[in-house]
DNA sequence: CGCGTTTACGCCTCACGTAAACATC
DNA sequence: GATGTTTACGTGAGGCGTAAACGCG
């Protein structure tokens, strides 16, 4: 039994399949497979049931997993006890929405680089639903996602709230920017694809208003959406701070609606059984640097 | 950092020198040395100070040792969590005096074999002083020794007491076997070499009696001593049970003395920082099988 | 047939022991 | 010179990736 085998087992058990675990370990799938077989031989117990389409933990494997995790953790602690660098090290794959990426992500990276120079924080930008899947799959270590996860294996730490406001260019909503239902019939709603956290509050709002929207202009980039809104290609919503900032510049008008869009609660999510030491540090850094949704420099 | 490296470090730090640690690990000294260098490279800290005649732990090494020990322990626990054999396994080198070896050691081995069939208990017979040294050196895992250890790194568990009685053949002490000081002047005392626990109580007794013994017949084997006593080559003492047994057979006489020989308290000793899981099991087995000093079959 | 895992194979690193060298007392 | 540790070196096992094969949906 070696630490490498335990590491392989931990990730193979945690990730969606061997290929993903292998990728996380910078290893070929075949080598990972062999390591796992060797571990099983060394402990004399089958840890994975390979009869089905994909390998799944046996009951022995389930029992083994927490032991393996604890052992790896204390190995890390032991390593660090001698590293004498008080800071953390390692690789943390962080999922964030584009909104976060455009706003406080640079601050987060600066913060962690300063406090934990050996911690390699690798951001991965995607919409919330995909981030959630990747997190469960083991492709990501943690992710900042709108809303709390309902998945039992995921724990969510609330880190902040963002308010959104409807906006449109003066050419679309008029100089006074008064709310009229007709606006939503005549102009497409420029929005992110389904699966983004912001799309959910849009749907809730539409449901509350009992509005039927003839067509949406779907774009997967907030930067592009802002540009489309400014260009008058539809109406949409932006973080309130962005909206006010752009309104001050005169390129957009804020549309007052009743009710207003529900605020979005962002959480830092991680797998429940992932107790690696960088997780609390990440949370601390996120909380320290996440005053939310300040307008990106490009606006 | 691998488990093998940690194991190498643990034993190198625990044993008197690298050669002994290597022997315990079934490894050549050179391989052990290389493993240690690799460990030091992997953690980036020198763990041994090699400037002197022998390698000695650096402060970093001292700090590291408990971590390494804990890690190895939880590795063992992890292994056992899957081995599903409730019993222990491994190799335990047990030091015992010859008196123990001749009496309850077979019972101890039978007991452990029955309760922990995978635990290889390897007895090493020698006099108490040598056992103590070997235990401190790391050549032994535990030892049954007369008296408590005064060494701070050794813990002693009391396991029983043995009483001794002076004996002599009828041809030496007479049919009535009455105590006379002259006996000790005219006949050599047949005894173990210095360093055996029993020799200590002899010296204490002689000091209390203020007796000067002209010469001792030193022999390193209790079986031979019993034979010498029976053969009338001197007087000596045996465990009380042996003495009575041999007296019943008529080959020896028990000599009543005032004061009587002090009883000898036996303890199971182990290194303080050795928390391997077989240690409590060994203690339990020793306590279960050590009703002391029943006469060996050969008498 | 796609996806996930294992097997086959060649490559190369790494860990071992023997033996010699080195260092300290 | 005795003891303790490291270096040199030849050997063999083991871990790696590529690519092909297998097996389940």
From TrEMBL, chains A, B:
Gene3D superfamilies: Periplasmic binding protein-like II, Winged helix-like DNA-binding domain superfamily/Winged helix DNA-binding domain. InterPro entries: LysR_HTH_N, LysR_subst-bd, WH-like_DNA-bd_sf, WH_DNA-bd_sf. The keyword Ion transport does not apply. Pfam families: HTH_1, LysR_substrate. PROSITE patterns: HTH_LYSR (PS50931). The chain crosses the membrane at residues 222-243. It comes from Noviherbaspirillum aridicola. Belongs to the LysR transcriptional regulatory family. This is LysR family transcriptional regulator. Residues 1-58 form the HTH lysR-type domain. The keyword Transmembrane helix applies. Keywords: DNA-binding, Membrane, Transcription, Transcription regulation, Transmembrane, Transmembrane helix.
């Amino acid at each position: 039994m070696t630490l490498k085998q335990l590491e392989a087992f931990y990730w193979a058990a945690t990730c969606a399949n061997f290929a993903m675990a292998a990728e996380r370990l910078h290893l070929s799938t075949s080598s990972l497979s062999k390591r796992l077989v060797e571990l099983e031989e060394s402990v004399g117990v089958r840890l994975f049931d390979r009869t089905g389409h994909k390998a799944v933990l046996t009951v022995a494997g389930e029992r083994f997993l927490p032991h393996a995790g604890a052992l790896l953790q204390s190995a890390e602690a032991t390593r660090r006890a001698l590293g004498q660098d008080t800071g953390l090290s390692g690789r943390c794959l962080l999922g964030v929405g584009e909104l976060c990426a455009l706003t406080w992500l640079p601050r987060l990276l600066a913060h962690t680089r300063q406090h934990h120079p050996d911690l390699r924080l690798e951001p991965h930008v995607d919409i919330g639903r995909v981030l959630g899947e990747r997190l469960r799959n083991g492709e990501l270590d943690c992710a900042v996602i709108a809303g709390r996860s309902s998945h039992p294996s995921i724990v969510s730490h609330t880190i902040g709230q963002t308010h959104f406001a409807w906006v449109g260019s003066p050419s679309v909503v008029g100089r006074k920017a008064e709310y009229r239902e007709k606006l939503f019939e005549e102009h497409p709603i420029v929005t992110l694809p389904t699966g983004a956290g912001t799309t959910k509050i849009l749907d809730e709002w539409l449901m509350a208003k009992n509005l039927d929207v003839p067509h949406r202009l779907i774009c997967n980039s907030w930067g592009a959406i802002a540009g489309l809104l400014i260009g008058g290609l539809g109406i949409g919503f932006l973080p309130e701070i962005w909206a006010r900032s752009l309104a001050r510049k005169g390129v957009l008008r804020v549309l007052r609606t009743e009710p207003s869009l529900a605020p979005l609660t962002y959480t830092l999510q991680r797998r429940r059984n992932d107790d690696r030491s960088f997780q609390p540090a990440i949370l601390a850094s996120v909380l320290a640097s996440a005053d939310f949704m300040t307008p990106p420099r490009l606006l």
